[in-house]
Each structure stands twice: as structure tokens, then as C-alpha cells.
């Protein structure tokens, strides 16, 4: 999404330690000046907002709207976009902080952010507990006696809640934030290493990814199994995002502009589309060579299959090529809701997870028709937009009144330090 | 290919027509409203085949079917309305009267695929079914077993069953909208599909079928009612669909069916 010639935070790469005074301080988040909204990299906000909407829709039961989410048209989905952009913005914001205020201060700020995400996760878990307990006491359809086994963990809340606080017990749809927490915890190390040699850092990240696949590294979960998003594999996207933010994107601009890249990307996207088509139109699968099928499947989301990663790269390459940074549409008010949501990703992400829970609840308790379903999806998105707007408004007001007395540290959040 | 599509269409039409035609003489056995069972044909067909079933029927040998399942294989306190029993009744209706059909059920409740598969060698020594319908995945999903481990357990199980000389049909999880936020079914559905593809065996997509019914409004699977009525109707339709699926995958000529 980001990328190339237009990238803003390119001052760090190579010139480690040098103050970015000479370069254009265009910027999403210098701690000294207030960032004017118009100067932000709006494409990042736009696509993160889009990812948040798609994650919300994907978390609801399938409906007509589900057909608009990208996971039906290719191998990667909104999670990849979200993690990549998070890596990009986090590196951008805290990388600058590290250059300007030193490693210690930047680390402290990152840890503060990690704490916020952790609290958000625990909050969502509480809501989930309430919901599942409600269902456990109300729902006794004999068709589903077996599925009710999921409630067994309620019998020992002492263990379950402690495991949840340790991020080892994660109910469905609550996997992204723990991944994010671990990645953010590693961010000081990543940035410190990037400051030294960005390319070596990216190389190490690729190495860790490869080692994860070769030796099967994982984090275990409770009561058994593994993290649904393996941080050792998904860090690749996050670090790649950081690397792009810190100048990598600019250095790649040659590659990105070449028509060869474009055609490879297009070909790959079409092939991936065909593969996904065979999932929905089983009749097509006979035109799929068995050898390719056996080599390709399963396409592993837990360990960020290389096919998924490549799919994301192809999407990103085309996006950067055909959606220039100064595209006037970015300022149109039609895209404003998406951009607003993207600018407050943590809040809107949590809200989205909560709304998905609530949506399920309404579908189950009130009525489940397609009209209701569409209504829930739409009102969910409207609520996300509304809340994003309120947060923006509040930050604007708070920044105005606080600008004279303190540095606008809060801008890190605005720029999406997370 | 064309011939095959045609055949399955013929089979399907035959099947859909059958319940209405029989409603009169077999009212006690048939579901009161078979229209509720309607499904698009792609959910009832498979690229893979059941050669041993076909052979047995051709030769007029008895068709022994073993259903290996879990708690969702049955309905508490009404065994005879569960889908294996319904499938048996429908198969008997559809196959020639000379063809003996026998369905037995092996329930391993609260067992993961791995735990279940480890019993297969012994199980297959005791019984020698022509066809094993292995329904699994729910317990693994509830306990969020690692999908890779799940896949290799299912693979081992399928291999053991095939080695013992049976055709195998895999059946995946129920569609359960109430617990959708709590049980992550997708990785288990995906991996069962993969195993079925790798071993070229038919996969009965119970999940997609039940979701189809729920979405089309044939059944309201959100229903919290405590009575067994909904469960009975759903199992009746599942039994019908499964019987149809087996007949289709065995590629029986219309002449080998009663209608």
C-alpha cells in the first residue's frame, strides 16, 4: 500500500543517527509540530480502514456482504493488510521517536501502547465471557448437544481467566490483538536493529520466518493447540512494513514501477482468483492439475503461507502503481469514513470485534433473516464511522486546548502507532 | 463429463420426485415435508467414487455401512430418527428389494480424530463394512486441536479404513450458528477437504448443507427450542441427502435403483 517514491519516513535508512533535519519533514508524527491532517499518508489510513471494515464483515456470519471481502477473490485477506500497515505506521511513528528522543523514551512509549492494546484485549474477553455464559444458560437445542461442549471451560473459570490474561486462551475472532501485542513488544528491538541496518533486519526477519517453517516454531495455546496466528511467521509482514516505512519502499520504487512486476502481479492475482474460484464452484476443480493441488494445499494461514504473502505483495504492488499518493479521490468525502476509521485503528478494531459479537447476538435472539443481517452489517459500519468521527473530533479539541501546555504526544496514536 | 452431469441430474430428479410419490404409502417413514430437504445438486455429488459399494450392489451382495461418529451422530433419546437410521431406511427404499442394506453406528463421543482413528484397526477387525462413513472434526474444533495434527490424524484414519478394505466417505462438522463465535470450524473443514482430495474419497459437506438450509429458511438453526422436533427433521433430511450422496458416488445406473 505504501510505498515508493512517495513515502514519507525515508529519512532514517542508511543515515542512522543523523537528525532528519535536512529532509522534508512531511510527516505523520513529528512530536514537535502538529501534523496537518492533509499531509498524512492517506492511502495507509484508507486501506487500514478498509481492512477494519472487512475484518468486521468477515467476523459476522456469512451474508451477501461477505462476497465483497477480498478473501473470496484471492489467497490473502484483510489480516495481512492490517498487520502490514500496522508495522508501517508503528515504525514510522516510533522510529522517528527513537531518532529524536532516544531508544529509552521510544521503548517506553511503545510499551505504553502495548499496555493499551492489552487492556483492550482483556475488555473484549470480558464481553465474550458474558456472551458465552448467556448462551450456555439459554440454549438447549438437542441438535447441538455436542457443540455445547465448548462451554466446558466455564466449569473452571480460575484456570481459564488466568490463561486468558496470559494470552494463551483466546476465543474465536480474538486472535489478532494478541498477535499485535507480541509484535509491538518486539518493536523496540526491530527499530533498534533497523536503525543500525534495515536490510540486515529484514534479512533476519526472513530467516526467522524460514526457521519457523523448517523447525516448526510456535507459541502454545490453552487448553491445547497453538496460536492461530503464529507470531514467528507473521512478524515477516510487520517487519516488512517497518522496513518499507523506513526507506525500503523508496529504494524499491524502481522495481515497483517496472512493467515486469506489474505483469507478474497481475498474473499471480488471476491465478489466485482461479484457485479461490475452485472452492466455490467445485465443478472447476477438475481443471486443476492434481500435482499443483497437492503442492499448494493446505494454504496455511497460521504460519502465513508464502502463497498468501506473495498474494499480498502482488496486491500491494498494483495498489501503489495505480493509486498514486496524490490521487484526488483520497480527499473526497466518499472515502472519508474509511480514512477516519483507519486513523483510529485500535479503537475501531476493538469496536468491530465487539459489534460482531453483538451482531451475532441480535441474529440469534431476535431474528436471522437476510434483511436483518444486512441491517446489522450496515449499522455496524455506520457505528464504526460515527465513533471514529467522535474520536477525531475529541482529539482535535483536546489537541487544541493542550497544544500550548504539552507536546502532542497523543499524535502517535492519531498516526496509528497502533 | 457431460454424461456424468446428466446422470447426476437424473438421479437428483428421481430423488426429489420420490418422496412425494411415496408420501402416501410410507407416511410413517418419510419426512412430513421433504421439500425442506431440497439442496442444490453440487452438494449431493462428488468427483470421487465408491467402487466397492458399486461392486457389492452389482453383485447383489449385502451393503454393510458403518457410521463412525460422535454425539452429533445421534439425537439424544430418539436413536431411530438419527441420520444413520434415516439413511438406512431411504437406501432400502431406493435400492432393489433384493439388496440387503445394513447400517451400524459406532459412537465415540468426546474423542478427537486422533483418538478415534487409533481404534480403527481393532474396529475393522470386528466388522467388515463395505463402506465407512466417518464423521469427525467437531471435538477437534471445540478443543482447537492444531489443524496440522488434525489433518494427519484424519489421513491416518482414512488410510487404516481403506487398508481394511472399505470405501470411505468423510463427513464434516455441523453448521451451528449459535456457537459460530465460539468454535472455529474453518480450519477443520479445510483440512478435511484436503484429505478427501488427496485420497480421492467423497466428502459429504454436512456443514455447507446445513448452512444452505438455514440460509434458505428451510430450517431455523438458531432455534433454542428444547424439544427434539427440529433435530428429528434435520436428521431426516441429512439421512436422505447422505443416501443420495452414496448412490451418486457409487455411480449406480438408474436400473440399479428402484426409481
TrEMBL record, chain A:
Q: Can the keyword RNA-binding be found in this entry's annotation?
A: no
Q: Does the keyword Cell cycle apply?
A: no
Could you list this entry's UniProt keywords, alphabetically sorted. Membrane, Transmembrane, Transmembrane helix
Tell me where the transmembrane regions lie: 50-70, 82-105, 117-136, 176-193, 200-220, 232-249, 261-281, 306-324, 345-363, 375-394
**One protein family per Pfam:** OpgC_C
Q: Which InterPro entries is this protein grouped with?
A: UCP028704_OpgC
* PANTHER family (alphabetical): BLL4819 PROTEIN (PTHR38592)
From the Swiss-Prot or TrEMBL record, give the protein name.
Answer: OpgC domain-containing protein
TrEMBL record, chain B:
Under the heading SUPFAM superfamilies, the entry gives: SGNH hydrolase
UniProt KW keywords: Signal
Q: Give the signal sequence positions.
A: 1-23
GO MF, one term, reads: hydrolase activity, acting on ester bonds
**Record InterPro entries:** NonGDSL (IPR057572), SGNH_hydro_sf (IPR036514)
Is Signal found in the keyword set?
yes
This chain belongs to which protein, by name? Lipolytic enzyme
Amino acid at each position: 500500500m505504501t510505498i515508493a517514491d512517495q513515502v514519507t519516513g525515508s529519512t532514517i535508512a542508511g543515515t542512522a543517527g543523523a537528525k532528519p533535519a535536512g529532509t522534508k519533514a512531511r510527516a505523520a508524527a513529528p512530536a514537535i509540530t502538529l501534523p496537518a491532517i492533509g499531509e498524512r499518508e492517506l492511502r495507509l489510513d484508507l486501506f487500514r480502514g478498509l481492512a477494519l471494515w472487512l475484518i468486521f464483515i468477515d467476523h459476522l456470519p456469512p451474508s451477501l456482504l461477505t462476497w465483497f471481502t477480498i478473501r473470496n477473490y484471492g489467497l490473502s485477506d484483510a489480516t495481512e493488510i492490517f498487520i502490514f500497515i500496522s508495522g508501517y505506521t508503528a515504525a514510522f511513528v516510533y522510529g522517528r521517536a527513537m531518532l529524536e528522543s532516544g531508544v529509552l523514551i521510544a521503548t517506553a512509549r511503545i510499551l505504553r501502547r502495548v499496555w493499551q492494546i492489552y487492556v483492550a484485549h482483556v475488555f473484549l474477553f470480558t464481553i465474550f465471557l458474558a456472551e458465552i455464559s448467556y448462551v450456555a444458560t439459554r440454549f438447549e437445542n438437542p441438535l447441538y448437544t455436542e457443540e455445547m461442549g465448548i462451554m466446558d471451560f466455564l466449569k473452571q473459570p480460575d484456570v481459564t481467566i488466568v490463561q486468558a490474561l496470559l494470552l494463551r486462551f483466546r476465543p474465536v475472532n480474538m486472535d489478532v490483538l494478541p498477535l499485535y501485542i507480541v509484535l509491538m513488544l518486539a518493536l523496540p528491538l526491530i527499530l533498534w536493529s533497523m536503525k543500525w541496518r534495515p536490510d540486515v533486519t529484514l534479512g533476519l526477519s526472513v530467516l526467522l520466518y524460514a526457521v519457523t517453517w523448517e523447525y516448526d516454531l510456535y507459541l502454545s495455546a490453552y487448553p491445547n493447540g497453538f496460536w492461530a496466528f503464529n507470531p514467528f511467521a507473521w512478524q515477516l509482514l510487520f517487519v516488512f512494513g517497518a522496513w518499507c516505512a523506513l526507506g525500503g519502499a523508496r529504494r524499491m520504487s524502481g522495481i515497483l514501477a517496472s512493467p515486469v512486476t506489474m505483469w507478474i502481479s497481475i498474473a499471480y492475482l488471476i491465478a489466485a482468483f482461479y484457485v479461490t474460484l475452485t472452492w466455490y464452484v467445485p465443478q472447476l476443480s477438475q481443471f486443476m492439475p492434481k500435482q499443483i493441488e497437492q503442492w499448494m494445499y493446505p494454504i496455511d494461514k497460521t504460519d502465513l503461507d508464502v502463497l498468501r504473502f506473495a498474494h499480498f505483495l502482488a496486491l500491494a504492488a498494483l495498489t501503489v502503481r495505480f493509486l498514486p499518493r496524490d490521487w484526488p479521490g483520497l480527499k473526497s468525502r466518499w472515502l472519508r469514513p474509511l480514512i477516519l476509521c483507519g486513523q483510529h485503528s485500535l479503537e475501531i478494531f476493538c469496536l468491530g470485534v465487539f459489534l460482531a459479537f453483538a451482531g451475532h447476538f441480535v441474529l440469534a435472539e431476535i431474528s436471522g433473516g437476510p434483511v436483518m443481517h444486512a441491517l446489522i452489517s450496515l449499522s455496524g459500519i455506520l457505528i464504526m464511522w460515527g465513533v471514529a468521527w467522535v474520536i477525531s473530533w475529541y482529539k482535535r479539541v483536546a489537541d487544541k486546548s493542550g497544544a500550548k501546555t504539552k507536546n502532542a504526544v497523543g499524535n502517535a496514536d492519531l498516526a496509528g502507532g497502533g | 463429463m457431460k454424461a456424468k452431469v446428466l446422470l447426476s441430474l437424473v438421479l437428483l430428479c428421481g430423488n426429489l420426485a420420490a418422496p412425494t410419490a411415496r408420501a402416501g404409502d410410507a407416511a410413517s417413514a418419510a419426512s412430513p415435508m421433504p421439500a425442506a430437504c431440497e439442496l442444490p445438486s453440487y452438494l449431493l455429488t462428488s468427483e470421487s467414487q465408491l467402487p466397492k459399494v458399486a461392486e457389492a450392489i452389482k453383485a447383489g451382495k449385502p451393503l454393510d455401512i458403518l457410521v463412525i461418529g460422535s454425539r452429533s451422530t445421534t439425537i439424544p433419546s430418539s436413536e431411530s430418527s438419527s441420520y444413520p437410521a434415516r439413511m438406512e431406511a431411504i437406501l432400502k427404499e431406493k435400492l432393489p428389494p433384493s439388496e440387503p442394506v445394513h447400517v451400524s453406528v459406532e459412537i465415540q463421543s468426546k474423542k478427537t480424530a486422533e483418538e478415534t482413528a487409533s481404534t480403527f484397526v481393532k474396529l475393522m477387525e470386528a466388522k467388515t463394512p463395505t463402506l465407512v462413513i466417518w464423521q469427525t472434526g467437531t471435538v477437534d474444533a471445540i478443543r482447537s486441536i492444531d489443524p496440522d495434527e488434525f489433518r494427519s490424524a484424519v489421513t491416518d484414519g482414512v488410510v487404516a479404513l481403506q487398508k481394511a478394505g472399505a470405501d470411505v466417505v468423510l463427513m464434516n462438522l455441523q453448521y451451528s450458528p449459535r456457537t459460530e463465535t465460539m468454535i472455529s470450524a474453518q480450519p477443520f473443514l479445510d483440512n478435511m477437504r484436503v484429505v478427501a482430495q488427496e485420497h480421492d474419497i467423497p466428502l459429504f459437506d454436512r456443514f455447507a448443507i446445513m448452512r444452505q438450509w438455514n440460509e434458505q429458511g428451510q430450517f431455523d438453526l438458531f432455534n433454542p427450542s428444547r424439544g427434539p422436533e427440529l433435530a428429528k427433521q434435520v436428521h431426516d433430511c441429512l439421512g436422505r441427502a447422505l443416501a443420495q450422496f452414496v448412490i451418486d458416488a457409487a455411480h449406480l445406473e438408474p436400473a440399479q435403483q428402484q426409481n
